[in-house]
Predict the 3D structure of the following.
Amino acid sequence: MATTPTVQETNVKEDVWINTSCGGCYAQCGIRAHRVDGVIVELEGNPETPAGSGRICAKGTAQLMMLYDRYRVNYPVKRTNPEKGVGVDPKWERISWEEAYETIFEKFRNMKDPRGTYFQATTVQTSEIRFAVPAFMKAWGFKNYWVSGGGLWCGNGAHFMNGIMHAAWSIIPDWNYNKYTLYFGCSKGHGAGHAALQSAQWAADARARGMKAVVFDPFLSTQASKAHEWVPIRVGTDGAVALGMINVILNELGIWDAPYLKLKTNAPYLIQPDQHYKRDPETNKPLIWDPADGRAKVFDDPSIKDFALEGTYEVDGTTCTTAFQLLKEHVRVNYPVEKAENISSVPAATIRRIATEFAEAAEIGRTITIDGKEIPLRPAAAIFFRGSQGHVNSGWNCLEIDLLNHIVGAADVPGGSMGHGPPVSFGHPDTGKPETVPYACPDGLMTVKGWVYDHKPYPLREPAPPQRLDLQDLYPCSVYNAFTICTPEWEKYRKDFNIDYEPEIMINFGSNSVMTMANAEGVTENFLKQFDFVLSFNIYQNEFTEAVADIVLPDASFLERYTPCVTFPSTFCHPTGMDHWVWQIRQPVVEPLHERRDFNEVMLEIAKGLGVQDKYFQAINDLIPVRYGGEMDDEYKLDPSGDYSWQDISDRVLKDRLGPDKGLEALKKTGLEKWPTKVEEMYWRWFTPVRVPIYFEFFLESGKKLQKLLSSFGREDMADYRFYTPLAEWFPCPSHEEEDPSFDLWAFSWRPSFHTQSSTQNNPWLDEVSVNDPFVYLMQINATTGKSKGLKDNDMVWVENPDGNKIKGPVKLVEGMHPEHIGIAGCHGHWARGTPISKGKGQFFDDLINPDLAHTDSLTQGSDACAKVKIYKVAGR
Amino acid sequence: MPRYGFVIDLKRCYGCYSCQVACKAANFTPQGIDWARCVSAETGSFPTALRQMLPLVCQQCKEPACKEVCPTGATTQDENGIVLVDKNLCMGCKACIMACPYGARQTVGDWQTYFPDAEGQLDPYEAYAKKQWEKKNGYGMATKCDYCKDRVAEGRKPACVESCPAKARTFGDLEDPESEVSMLIRREYGFQLNPEFGTDPACFYLPPR
Amino acid sequence: MQLKAQTKWGWTIAAYLFLAGLGAGAYVTGVIADFAGEQWASVSKIGVALGFPCVLLGTAFLIADLGTPANFWRAYRKPGTSWVARGTIIISVFMVVGFIHIGLWLWPFGVLDDAEGARQFIGVVGAIFAFGTMIYTGILLGANRPIAFWSTALVPVLFLVSALSTGMMAVMLIATIDGAAHSGPISTLVRIDVVLLVLEIIVVAMYLQATHRVPESRAAARLVLAGSIAPLFWFGVAVLGLMVPLALELLGYYVLDGSSAATVIASISGMVGGLCLRQVVLSGGIQAPLRAGRFEFAIPNT
């Protein structure tokens, strides 16, 4: 980095570097922007922040092309073509901001019921959606909310299970100490937006040091190509392999971390024959068996000398078995390694060997002293993300992989799997904020304190008659769901559940749900076209806006706006390992060009125009303590009767969280505030008195309640209650049960490390890279399989699923692909007029995805993102 | 005088193309010109196939094949071993492009906007980039990586080195036996690409695994 | 691994290589004919007359191919340092000599008409540089060590044989159409050309046979024999460039008793083949893959 400005020409009037935060993906790395005479000419990593540590990736650098892209939406436009639908030309007409506001106010004021409003937002701009979206929802009074792509491109089962098991949004290995990691369908440390740059560096360090990585994936992914071993696996069968490995570890090797299981999980809890906890009649707390005293005690009884992990005990005339014993027996009986082989195609011997390597690598019993604190060292981790969770068994798949960590005690300790964030924060030394520490529920199980969504992962939500249009309130574990809204049944669903209002207005912030939820026609026809008025904030016209938007407002990009905090709530920004907490802001490096305006400012204007700004301000007062850890000082609370600009709000948030001298003006200079992490925060597991379940007793009750509730509406069919079981099970996707032998391949999607969901394909520099890359714009198929089908490189083929949905593209014959699969880079094949660079390049995988009930996880409502397909040459080619 | 060199650790590189794009941005290269290109390869057969990315830069050879074939004297080597093209001497015969074993040289006909429908006028960034490009480079002539000579003179590192998330790239002085690059080459089996061409590159690679 | 051929030197360079060779070949034919006696006079004039203009036209193609054609003179800055620079000198000297030769003998001046010694001296000097012109293009390609398909001693030989043959065909063509030449010399030229064509077939066969050494030249041979440039090679080079002229020349000589039509068709066909040959050689320019460990990386097109 330059320490002195590079003034070479005398006519240069201005030459400055400005610290801000990248918005190319959700990792939100700290960057510095070089502005010369009002033009941003260079972006580079900010070496001062642990969120990026001075590096910048291809997506980040390429944002220069986004800022000045003349295809950006630069003025408000309205649709003049009344027809809506996929591929329709909206015939945009430029309008003034005044006209836009007037139309918007009129539409909102004329609503039959404000509840019929629907907020849809993108997961890329994670920090922007945390203020305006929830504040406006509260102010206007509606509950319909959806993160576009959430079910498909973001986490669902993963976030839910990580929330329960790690109090975190996601998990990554602790590369600083790790010696052995199992990766299941993810690319953390290899381009994924999970503390992307620092993780990449530490993963490379670990690789150079000799960390062994084993990657389970249908194709030789970025991650797999850097691993010691690539294990080709059928899509969606990760959980079966994990259960087979757990069986090997527990029953064949007899290895487990007894102290961890006894003190940090519900493994010693006694289970009655009815599968529920045996509870103490007096306190209603779960009981454990103390073998030293030979009697049952409540789990937190200070007199406990030891916990029985195994065995069956008589307690008050009931035969009880420890949860651990049940799990051990369950995997022995139900998940023999050979069964895992049949499901996954991974040879039994391989599963055994890897299970053994993993269990031994955990070095159970070892400790390490960091900052004077002796804690367990477990240099083994099992990690997962999109690949393993994008299936009907979304939640369980993730849990089963994570159970490997908990059996060997490798969770949130040095070397193990780390709740990404980390989830324990004691706050800035001056203010004690943002503060968040998980706490135990009455049953001893971990409950997160702050969470980025309105419902915490645990305790589970009570199934309730739905208030939301997507019926999400019915389901106790749902993070996002798509199967109701994306099917032709949506209207019927709403009737069946007596929803007494209609979808009226959709506000879309930056998302392109036509390309990120499921097949485009289904999403558009069944869901998006049901809204009378669609208002959209975008930087590009995309497939969504062209299909359904009535008014598109020109949003400021991340280089043109203020965001008071991008690195908290800590989801994807902070790396693992002892370093620093960082509070980064985003600030305009250039004033919004043309007539672009920042989403947060416009939403505030809309709230003011609708006369609900008091509720809007109050909502911000309410959400700050939940999402940014800790009560607000009265001094900085917004007065609901006052009048604030977005910058005023940002300033107050900053002063409240970081101290009176660290308001917006101060932070604009540095772009960030950082303070050292503590070992109790980073490696919090043994410092925080909470347990996590290995036995999901609470699912039983939720399942029964759900069944009862759904039955009361006559829709008992809307869940598969087998999923609500206390012991981990692997459930097949429809693709695993396809009987027609002509559908002989599984299609799955993957993400190149230089693209973010559907938002980067139109970037000309990234398009250049995509053309350069041998895989992005081609569909990969195993060479032997391809040859047996008479295919050669660049042959155009149809890929067709059993419902008759099909996509077309050229194939590439490769060795790095499981013979039963075809791999397609996701979110390509754009067709919008507003994205001329990406138009027609690559394939649109989601057209193969039908998010109906059959393709939905009954537990978390995650969407199944795999399809059984047949492929055949395009006629005439 | 230091001889500048690169060490690129293929173990650490995971193929994210950050260097390629950072180079483009730092050097304001026009459409289609990438001095720090990444090329990927697959070897072996299922299920033991392997994939690897090879990030390229100009190898700044001690015996540059490009210089040998240059008819006009446009190609020179500076005191740090950097092979340079003088835009006022090159006539664009492309002999150097053919002779370079590493694909390090490219040529471009004219500045083309990235935004195809644009009506003549460049956006402020592209206008700035075009101006910067034309200061040192031109059209119809051979262009190439110069290890970010000007940045290095300012005390910065080459853009591809600064950006690399995996810290796969190290830049330094090959003449100094105690420099990080020299030590890495010595201790981690550094090798040069295709030594059979006798070019003696200043860019060394560390084995992929 | 898919190795890709270079695309930077395309048809304009092929046209240059072809025309420079043809012009030089025709010139050499003309100079030799000048030593062969009175009945060869018109053949000699045609050969000399073709030399300079063809090479000049070829050079125009070469300059047009430059990134900055206006700067072509920079090629004279460092004579002798590279094959492009040496070639520039060779071809320039040839053009100067060829120009003088024409100017003083054919048009506008006829001063050399009777000065046989001076004329032949100029011819010999010109012919030396004509040989240089025919050969250096092959050496220039051969200097590209990473391109094994070019980096062989057979390319200059091939270009030389082809240049002599196409040059001779050009002379035969003009002489036949012109009708001024005696039939004897033309049929002698045809016989010599038959020998050259047979030689060329042998050289082409040897050239392609020698490609088995390294993967990049194997890939080039595959491209030429069965790949995307196979039609150009088989139809353009093998049929038009070698088989048709050889067959017609033999037919014309032995059966049709010096048929003008056969000579004209053979010459045109053979010259088209000569152009195709240059293009085939250029299109087969595949660079050696870069190697790291077990991996081989194809260099992308620049």
